[in-house]
Amino acid sequence: MLFALSIVLLNYVFEIEGAFISYPLLRFIDNIDWVFLLPVFTFLFIINRIDDAVKNRQKTYLYYIPFVYNSILNTAICLDTVAGIYKIPESYMYLVNILQMIQLLLAVIIILFLPFYSYFMIRHLKDSQEKKWVITLLTIIYLVLLVWLTTYMTGLFFGLDISSTMSVLALCATFIMHWTAYIGIYKYKLAKNKDAIYNLLNNSSVISYPDLQIVQNSTPQEYKESITADNLYFQKLELLCKDQHIYTDSTLNREKVAEKLGISAGYLSQIVNTITGDNFAHYINQYRVKAVKEMISDPEFENYTLLTMGLESGFTSKTTFYNSFKKVTGQTPNEYKNTLK
């Protein structure tokens, strides 16, 4: 996508500087409508982030047809008008006009259809934060493409000067290019890192407790006697954290865990507070911090950012992650990492 935006912007610079007059062959690049690639590359980015089963059903090569058609047609015309290699007879100009109308129809289809289809595919994205960012990016690109198409058709059918509008669109393209480069690539890398960390965590060796079975839909007896570390429900809670890594769920709360254990949320808090001396949130955050510490110490995770580790361990934001880490260890994640060097 950045490549397509760069070419569009480069052609605009060539136009301003008069490069097409000094170097006419550059018209070959200018006459290709690179803007056709923007919705295609955006769509490819989206489906690259979704489920493989859904992704494999997409015939992505079809979406390149408008761009390929446009490139072949305009190159053929430029070989006549720019390079002078041959001359298209006047009797064939009606055919060229028909082919250009087909090109315009393909432009309308790709620019109107693919962004809408992309919105439909966004629902398959798993990460809610990534989904919000992609929707924002897609909306901006869709609006720019819609204005470009409207301007282009207005200039074509009414013979109006559209250079000023195209200048504004070029500035918009510049904004999108920088915003995508500095924000989009970062978030994409973050999303990929989260997936990689998730896979590494789930493929790593974990502590197994075969003698403890979590009984679903059981009716608990919330004993009133003294609660100790060998409490059955506390042992089950430890199993959920150590073996099933439930703390990596950023939406985890007392109610969810209590439901898994088959006890009330109040009794769960009582167990955790009595045995550990901490509240439920701090108890879970200790597991999250421990997971991050292990990742920082593991060479397999050295290419991932601290924030990625924190988010994949279950923290909901950078602030929560850093505050909890310092509360548990007395150090920030960066300080802890530096002590290991």
Keywords:
341 residues, mainly alpha, Arc Repressor Mutant, subunit A, 2 domains, 16 helices, 69% helix, elongated
Q: Give the ordered list of helices and strands.
A: HHHHHHHHHHHHHHHH
Helix content: 55-70%
Structural class by sheet pairing and helices: mainly alpha
CA(first)-CA(last) distance = 39 Å
What characteristic shape results from the CA principal axes? elongated
| Contiguous runs where pLDDT drops below 50 for at least 5 residues | 204-225
In short:
The protein is mainly α.
Characterization of this structure:
The chain is mainly α and 341 residues long. It has 2 domains: 2-201; 207-339, Arc Repressor Mutant, subunit A (Orthogonal Bundle), CATH 1.10.10. Helix content is 69%, strand content 0%. It is built from 16 helices and no strands. Helix 1 (2-17) runs antiparallel to helix 9 and helix 11 (254-261) packs across helix 12 (265-276). The longest helix is centred in the middle third of the chain and has 41 residues, at 163-203. It is elongated, with a radius of gyration of 29 Å. The relative contact order is 0.07. The model is unreliable at 204-225 (pLDDT under 50).
